[in-house]
Write a structure and sequence with these properties.
The complex is a heterodimer.
Chain A: H1 2-6, H2 10-30, H3 35-58, E1 72-82, E2 85-93, H4 95-119, H5 125-144, H6 148-166, H7 173-204, H8 220-223, H9 230-250, H10 259-262, H11 268-277, H12 282-289, H13 291-295, H14 298-320, H15 325-345, H16 349-376, H17 394-408, H18 414-429, H19 431-456, H20 473-482, H21 512-533, H22 537-542, H23 546-559, H24 577-611, H25 613-622, H26 624-631, H27 636-685, H28 689-711
Antiparallel strand pairs in A: 1-2
Helix pairs in contact in A: 2-3, 2-5, 3-4, 3-5, 4-5, 4-11, 4-16, 4-21, 5-6, 6-7, 7-9, 9-12, 11-16, 14-15, 14-19, 15-16, 15-18, 15-19, 16-17, 16-18, 16-21, 17-19, 17-21, 18-19, 18-21, 18-24, 19-24, 24-25, 27-28
Chain B: H1 4-21, H2 25-49, H3 61-68, E1 71-73, E2 82-83, E3 88-89, E4 92-94, H4 96-115, H5 124-143, H6 147-156, H7 158-168, H8 173-202, H9 207-217, H10 220-237, H11 246-253, H12 256-283, E5 284-285, E6 288-289, H13 292-314, H14 319-340, H15 343-374, H16 385-388, H17 390-403, H18 410-424, H19 430-454, H20 479-497, H21 500-513, H22 529-536
Antiparallel strand pairs in B: 1-4, 2-3, 5-6
The chains are: A mainly alpha, B mainly alpha.
């Protein structure tokens, strides 16, 4: 592990080198082999990340690498220095960043493996993998950076990669608009984040997390706990609010969530990697990392929890009436991110991180599985046009079932444990919030299994091949035909699994390069919940992070032991036995209730979408207003367009008019006199207009010089 | 005495004269390239002579200003370059601020000339001669240590640019050239008045002497008018809202090389003038900052420019005009950092000057390459070029990202620092910082709007009739064009990853700008400022 710490720069650097190789040599040289540099780079980074994680887990808390938790600091060079502002290129490695690194590189690696088969034959194959490498680079920088400027570097870097990958099928107007929207909405978040950083610097004179290390009191987090002057106290009231704007943008929370559903224009592996498993969780990471600045500010914590809860329910209700597979999962992602925000908002960052990890597994699995469906259905994703695919896609059906069960919180699946911890923690904070989250969990189970029952169960309906609306693949094949026809995917040209391939004219849609990554993710989606839940193993590990330790200290000082649950802050439980016992039994009841709620949701989906599908439609028809409202996604996009975008553009046009007529008009009046003299000159010297001015000027300078000489 | 600095001006001047006498167009363009590369080499030579880590902490404050000008050429009293009658002296010198701008200029000029090889088809010899003359005058502004010399060079840049726009420009070139000239010239008339006033009053045009005189001997109202006069000329050049309207037209009508130099260097003359003249001579008194209200007003104009320029850029149909308006927005950040008058803002501002030159210059180059192929820059007639011109698209998107301040590329560092400067400034404050930061959202909006229309989307290009007698250009960028863009791309990455050397090197010089020069001379033995200046001369 010492090697990994010493050379931690390799973790971002290797994927970057891979991206550079793929980008430079992909178009002419590597072509359909362009995945190799990325596989090697990301795979090596994943190995390094796992070594780091295992190494940290083996450090006994008591002996610890340092007095204040487990951490390593690696300084590379001073990136920006101006006056006494300093931002280093440096890495801070602790259990929090190691956990994030494993999720990013580990799950990222399997998604790149899947992408090889999925993207085979695309003309922009090299481009796709180069962007993926660049993304992993940015995301690792984001979680490894030791200061806010590095965080911002990664933050905008992942935004850029998201932009490029959403716009991967750049010829489609919908893709380019979605890409632009994602970047700009994220920029709104980054604006807030940037102001937050400046405010931090203004108040504390530093942007470094821990300066020379925890315990030295030279970094922001510790300075913010020291003796504060009145300006610093005042700033601390505001800093979390600015920072959370950034988090809401990146993690797609109300009111900045609108870009994520559109982001599904990108290829499916991108949706899995960036828009479900990793990038969108950056906001959770940020708040967990900056816990010390948030947790002492009750108003900020309440806002985070409230926005999270509101978004979770809002997105879940929209997901109930979506028919596009990827759109359902997109709204589901927004909703689950809302759960995580509730987690950090109710003083349970460990629960939020727990849900982040399990969600990364099962949501990546769900997206990739829907990618397989899309592949097999020639780009069709409308669940009204397909049904009963269990025979066509038998393996995918299993994977999808595992993913859906995990997302729905089916008892003992991963999502069950992590979601339950969040619900329990919110119940402990406020009964209303608890009920609210339970209801959202019920909707989650319902819309998830609505999708599953419609697509994989029931009578078999396979959409007719043809120009499809969504078109990852119909589109791609156009290219393949013209430029890279000879490369056209060996993976789905002649499969071996012919048992069901013949009767409807499709090839093998489940090649090994796609099923192996799915199987790995499925195993993760089943076991990760129990493994991390057992004995609070995740909590004890994350609890060694200086960020969480100090967060816990601040929370203890502020709220007292009565109102917080130490395990949710990564601490050992020190409370009286009967308190723990009481909480434990309450938690057990909560588990039973949330399990029952999940089953209830699944049962409702079964009744309306498998047993009696017409009943489901009739129900929808009885409430046309509600149906319309949900299908139109509450018209949020339209409202933004009319209230903000159109207004701004109108303002731009108005300003342009002012520019052309008003300002120029005034200047024209001022310039009228010189024009007259120019005209006179033109008459006398018989010269052209242009030269007239130049001569005037030379003449003028001569006169001035002469005058000056005369005076002396 | 360093002769490299004389050579820096002599090479392009001689080059321009020789170039004008060459027999044919072909030799003229290669000659121009040779001369501009030679000038660049002189610039690099100067950079090699320069002590970048100069430590002035041991030097007495009164000597710091003189010592920071490391490479200098000062003619003796009996030299023909020293006009005793008016105390004019052809004295040159560079400190680190000047040198960075010199380096940016000498980098931009060869690439602009190389980019013009196929673009300029008529009266080529004249074009390249004017370009070399322009190079000499621009460098003259950056290296002048004499107020009158500064002003003369500042005005002389107008003449070549006037012809470049007026002869080789687009369809409205005459109007554009005239407007450009009128605007900038009317602004600098006020500057000229102030220059003469200061020179006469101080008894010398030496920059240090005049600065000292302005700081200690002027009355408040005189100082106020000195500032207004100097700022008037510079504000038009920068350009600040509302005197920016010459810029979009001039940029749009100018040939590619003209736009590159106009945006890259000429606008910086204004910002540099504010930094070098207007701020130290008009805003700084013995006790430090003199007119906080004026500074606030200037900052408000900058912020209006940032937002106004961005919104107007967004509704443009001509992509060159869009980038031109983006300059109005960007220079707003640059001057905002400057008037923040603290380390972050001013260091960021100097870096911004260099960065804007590189990335906006590069944007104009790429747009010129598109225009050479399709003879249009209309956002409605071009679409989906990524399909047809992948290499061009890479550079287009790359420089766009630099321009919208993506961390890791150059634009971010300077944008962040200028906003941070306003944010932490004693006389501006948080509100100014937040208002300016709105510009980073708008910047993404208009630039990505252009990328989405021109680079992405379904392929659409106008049908182009082949011209007689000219070989058509390759579909994507050719080797020459890639050679033009690669140096700029490398500089963009380097300044994004390693901005600290630039920032550190300008720290002391920007501090000197906002501090009173030396202790005032008091008592019966006081000398006239001119005598002081003579004593100070080495």
């Amino acid at each position: 592990m010492q090697f990994v710490v010493e050379h931690s720069y390799l973790i971002p650097l290797l994927p970057l080198i891979g991206a550079a190789i793929a980008g430079l040599f992909g178009a002419r040289g590597l072509k359909q082999q362009s995945h190799w540099p990325i596989w090697l780079g990301v795979g090596a980074s994943a190995v390094l990340a796992i070594i780091l994680l295992v190494g940290m887990a083996q450090i006994h808390p008591a002996e610890g690498a340092h007095a204040a938790g487990i951490w390593f600091h690696k300084h590379l060079y001073t990136w920006i220095q101006a006056g006494n502002f300093r931002a280093d290129a440096g890495f801070f490695l602790d259990p929090l960043s190691a956990t994030m690194l494993c999720v990013i590189c580990g799950i990222g690696f399997f998604i790149t493996v899947f992408a090889k088969g999925y993207m085979a034959g695309e003309s922009g194959y090299f481009r796709f993998f180069a962007y993926l490498g660049l993304f992993i680079f940015s995301m690792t920088i984001l979680v490894m950076g030791d200061n806010f400027i590095m965080l911002y570097l990664g933050w905008e870097g992942v935004g850029l990669c998201s932009y490029l990958l959403i716009g991967y099928f750049y010829e489609k107007p919908s893709a380019r608009e979605a890409a632009k929207k994602a970047f700009i909405v994220n920029r709104v978040g980054d604006f807030g984040f940037g102001i937050g950083i400046m405010l931090i610097f203004l108040a504390f004179g530093s942007v470094s997390y821990f300066g020379n290390g925890p315990g030295t009191h030279s970094g922001v987090f510790e300075l913010a706990q020291g003796n504060l002057n009145s300006f610093q106290q005042h700033a601390l009231q505001w800093i979390p609010f600015w920072l959370m704007i950034g988090a809401f943008g990146k993690s797609a929370q109300f009111p900045l969530y609108v870009w994520l559903p559109d982001a599904m224009e990108g290829p499916t592996p991108v949706s899995a990697l960036i828009h479900a498993a990793t990038m969108v969780t950056a906001g959770i990471y940020m708040i967990a990392r900056c816990g010390t600045m948030f947790i002492g500010n009750s108003a900020a914590m309440a806002t985070v929890a409230a926005i999270g809860a509101f978004t979770a329910l809002l997105a879940a209700t929209i997901a109930v009436r979506q028919f596009d597979l990827k759109k359902v999962f997109a709204y589901s992602t927004i909703s689950q991110l809302g759960f995580m925000f509730v987690g950090v908002g109710v003083l349970a960052p460990v629960a939020a991180m727990f849900h982040l990890i399990t969600h990364a597994f099962f949501k990546a699995l769900l997206f990739l599985s829907s990618g397989v469906v899309m592949h097999a259905m020639m780009g069709e994703l409308d669940m009204r046009k397909m049904s009963g695919l269990r025979r066509v896609l038998p393996k995918t059906r299993i994977f999808m079932l595992v993913g859906c069960a995990a997302l729905a919180g089916f008892p003992l699946m991963s999502g069950f444990f992590s979601k339950d911890e969040i619900v329990a923690a919110s119940w402990a904070q406020s009964k209303i919030l608890g009920v609210w989250m339970l209801f959202t969990a019920f909707l989650t189970a319902y819309y998830t299994f609505r999708l599953y029952f419609r697509v994989f169960e029931g009578p078999e309906v396979i959409p007719a091949a043809g120009p499809a609306a969504h078109g990852d693949h119909d589109h791609a094949d156009d290219h393949a035909g013209t430029t890279h026809g000879h490369d056209h995917g060996h993976d789905h040209s002649h499969g071996h699994d012919h048992s069901h391939g013949h009767d409807h004219g499709h090839h093998n849609h489940e090649p090994l390069s796609m099923t192996i990554p799915l199987a790995v993710l499925a195993i993760g989606a089943i076991v990760s919940g129990f493994l991390l839940y057992w004995n609070h193993s995740l909590g004890h590990f994350l609890g060694q992070s200086p960020s969480l330790q100090q967060t816990a200290q601040v929370a203890m000082a502020k709220y007292g032991s009565a109102e917080i649950s130490p395990p949710m802050l990564g601490m050992h439980d020190f409370r009286p036995h009967e308190v723990v016992e009481r909480e434990h039994s309450a938690h057990l009841y909560m588990m039973i209730i949330s399990g029952a709620i999940a089953l209830l949701g699944i049962w409702l989906a079964y009744m309306l979408h498998l047993k009696n599908r017409t009943a489901g439609e009739r129900l929808a028809e009885r409430f046309p207003g509600v149906t319309r409202l949900l299908e139109a996604k509450y018209w949020v996009d339209e409202i933004y367009q009319a209230a903000i975008v159109d207004r701004l553009r109108g303002l731009g046009r108005a300003f342009f008019m002012v520019d052309r007529f008003v300002v120029d008009g005034i200047v024209w009046l001022v310039g009228f006199v010189p024009q007259l003299s120019g005209f006179a000159l033109k008459l006398t010297t018989q010269r052209g207009y242009l030269q007239g001015y130049a001569v005037t000027m030379l003449f003028g300078i001569a006169v001035v010089l002469l005058l000056v000489f005369k005076i002396f | 005495m360093h002769y490299s600095i004389v050579l820096l001006l002599a090479v392009p001047i001689v080059g321009a004269i020789v170039g004008a006498l060459l027999p044919n167009a072909r030799s003229a363009k290669w000659w121009a390239l040779l001369v501009s590369v030679a000038t660049a080499l002189v610039g690099v030579w100067m950079a090699a002579q320069f002590d970048w880590n100069q430590d002035l902490s041991a030097v007495p404050t009164s000597d710091r200003l003189a010592r920071s000008v490391q490479i200098a050429f000062t003619p003796g009293f009996d030299s023909p370059l020293h006009l005793q009658a008016i105390q004019f002296s052809f004295s040159l010198g560079v400190d680190s601020i000047s040198l960075w701008l010199v380096l940016m200029t000498v980098l931009l000029m060869p690439v602009s000339i190389l980019a013009s090889f196929t673009y300029i088809k008529e009266r080529q010899k004249e074009f390249y001669a004017w370009m070399q003359a322009l190079l000499a005058f621009m460098l003259g502004v950056f290296v002048a240590r004499d107020l009158l010399l500064f002003y003369v060079c500042f005005e002389l840049t107008l003449i070549p640019m006037f012809f470049i726009i007026g002869i080789w420009g687009g369809s409205e070139r005459r109007y554009a050239a005239g407007k450009f000239f009128l605007f900038t010239f009317s602004g600098s008339v006020f500057t000229l008045a102030v220059v003469i006033f200061l020179g006469l009053a101080a008894g010398s045009f030496d920059l240090a002497t005049v600065t000292q005189y302005a700081q200690y001997d002027l009355t408040d109202s005189a100082r106020f008018w000195v500032f207004m006069g100097l700022a008037a000329g510079m504000a038009v050049k920068v350009p600040l809202f509302p005197v920016h309207t010459w810029l979009p037209l001039a940029h749009t009508e100018a040939p590619t090389a003209g736009s590159v130099i106009l945006a890259g260097v000429l606008l910086k003359l204004g910002a540099y003038g504010l930094l070098r003249l207007a701020v130290p001579m008009g805003l700084i008194g013995p006790a430090g900052l003199m007119f906080p209200t004026v500074v606030k007003a200037l900052a408000v104009l900058c912020i209006i420019g940032v937002i106004y320029g961005a919104l107007v850029a967004w509704v443009q149909q001509d992509i060159k005009k869009l980038v031109a308006y983006s300059s109005v927005s960007h220079l707003g950040f640059c001057v905002l950092g400057l008037v923040a008058l603290n380390d972050y803002g001013m260091q960021g501002s100097v870096l911004y000057m260099v960065n804007h030159g590189l990335s906006t210059g590069a944007m104009f180059l790429v747009i010129g390459m598109i225009y050479e192929r399709y003879h249009t820059r209309d956002i409605h007639q071009l679409s989906g070029l990524a399909k047809q011109m992948p290499i061009m698209s890479f550079f287009f998107v790359f420089f766009t990202l630099s321009s919208i301040g993506l961390p890791g590329l150059n634009g971010y560092v300077s944008e962040f620092l200028t906003i941070l400067g306003a944010f932490t400034s004693e006389h501006l404050g948080i509100g100014y910082g937040i208002a300016a930061a709105v510009g980073i959202i708008l910047g993404a909006i208009y630039m990505l709007h252009m990328v989405a229309r021109v680079i992405f989307g379904p392929l659409k290009v106008p049908h182009v009739h082949e011209e007689e007698g000219h070989k058509p250009l390759s579909r994507d960028l050719n080797g020459r064009e890639i050679t033009v863009l690669v140096p700029l791309a490398i500089a963009v990455v380097l300044l994004g990853v390693l901005p600290t050397p630039v920032l550190n090197s300008v720290l002391e010089p920007v501090r000197m700008v906002r501090q009173p020069v030396t202790a005032p001379i008091v008592g019966p033995t006081a000398q006239s400022p001119a005598e002081v200046a003579m004593v100070q001369r080495p």
